[in-house]
Task: inverse folding
């Protein structure tokens, strides 16, 4: 079974401006999470994928957006990506009480993310 895309992210030097644009243009609901300086986006509609808007704090991160692919074993997939010819560009980063992610570059230089949801207790 394949791994679904579960989240997208826009990386911006002015995330408030970008969030305002998408809220006005597409009627997306944008909630600012001040404690992590992140804008969580609900696109609405059935079957849509929600995302986020943020300013990278480490970097520079290549490109200005990414899709996140859901995985069960973040560390194992990072190795599988490297074995398949990809490159890890951001090591494992934990999101407290939510999960963890890593960013990789495919053979064409495209940056994507992998996401492992934290198990609910």
Result:
């Amino acid at each position: 079974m394949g791994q679904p895309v579960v989240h997208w992210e826009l990386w911006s030097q002015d995330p408030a401006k970008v969030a305002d644009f998408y809220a006005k243009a597409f009627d997306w609901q944008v909630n600012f999470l001040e404690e992590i300086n992140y804008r969580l986006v609900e696109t609405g509609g059935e079957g849509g994928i929600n995302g986020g808007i943020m300013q990278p704090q480490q970097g520079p991160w290549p490109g200005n957006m990414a899709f996140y692919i859901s995985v069960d074993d973040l560390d194992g997939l990072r190795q599988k990506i490297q074995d398949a010819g990809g490159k890890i560009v951001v090591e494992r980063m934990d999101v407290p009480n939510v999960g963890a992610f890593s960013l990789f570059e495919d053979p064409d230089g495209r940056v994507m993310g992998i996401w492992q949801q934290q198990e609910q207790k």
Summary: The longest strand covers residues 87-95. The helical segments are 15-26, 74-83.
